[in-house]
Specification:
This protein is α/β, with parallel strands linked by helices. It is built from 6 helices and 10 strands; from the N terminus they run H-E-E-E-H-E-H-E-E-H-E-E-E-H-E-H. The protein has a single domain, classed as Zn-dependent exopeptidases (Aminopeptidase, 3-Layer(aba) Sandwich). The two termini are 29 Å apart. Bound molecules: zinc ion (ZN).
């Protein structure tokens, strides 16, 4: 655990202790939201197809999802709170572990090489067990909401690489036994998705995510 994680974990424990009169009590549901990318110094720079820029968009979505879930009684933390910094993929998972997350939701926006793909896709662990099960159920709950908004439902997928799960944040989450999903909201290089983003706004996508996460927690009996 690095210094940054110790620092935010310390803050979490202090606020928890204050909230419960000095006794650190386990909380019912904890979601850690991971706004994908950052300033590009540690992770890959986010996708950029003017006027859409992935890193600030994932942060904006995460901030709104956090507010909405907190209003519904869910405890939420972010892995980063600024576009001026960056956090490694393994540290993002370690932060979620440190907070005791029920799930880590890594928020992204997609592009494709041939610019011919559209819709919302979720990646979950392909290694099986609870990490995959939570990922599939959580992912489908979110996809139900994003598809109602108009984004094509591309389903929950797993992708295996040479060391287990292909995507680093999922692989790291699985190693720490934190169910982790990557939520690719839509393709910022595809006309229909760009038009939906422009017409409904980021806020609608964030609201869909929040409702999907909330419904999952409720159906799973965690709230
Ligand atoms: Zn991304």
């Amino acid at each position: 655990m690095n210094k940054f994680i110790r620092k935010i974990l310390g803050t979490a424990l202090i606020s928890t202790a204050l909230a419960f009169g000095g006794v650190v009590t386990a909380q019912a549901a904890v979601i850690v939201l991971d706004p994908g990318h950052g300033n590009g110094t540690i992770t890959a720079p986010g996708a950029a197809v003017d006027p859409f820029y992935e890193a600030p968009m994932t942060l904006a979505v995460a901030n709104q999802v956090k507010s909405e879930l907190e209003a519904a009684g869910v405890t939420v933390y972010l892995t980063r709170t600024s576009d001026a910094t960056d956090v490694s993929l393994s540290d993002r998972a370690a932060i979620a572990k440190a907070y005791g997350a029920d799930a880590l939701v890594s928020i992204h926006f997609n592009v494709s090489g041939p610019h011919d793909k559209s819709g919302c896709v979720v990646f979950a662990s392909a290694m099986g067990g609870n990490n995959s099960l939570v990922g599939i159920n959580l992912g489908n709950s979110i996809l139900q909401q994003t598809s109602a908004l108009g984004y094509v439902n591309k389903g929950v997928r797993g992708r295996i690489g040479t060391h287990g799960d292909y995507y680093g944040v999922i692989r790291s989450g699985t190693a720490l036994n934190v169910p982790t999903i990557i939520l690719e909201q839509c393709y910022i290089d595809y006309p229909t998705d760009r038009a939906l983003l422009a017409s409904t706004g980021l806020s609608a996508a964030a609201h869909a995510d929040a409702v999907g996460i909330y419904n999952y927690l409720k159906n799973a009996g965690k709230i």
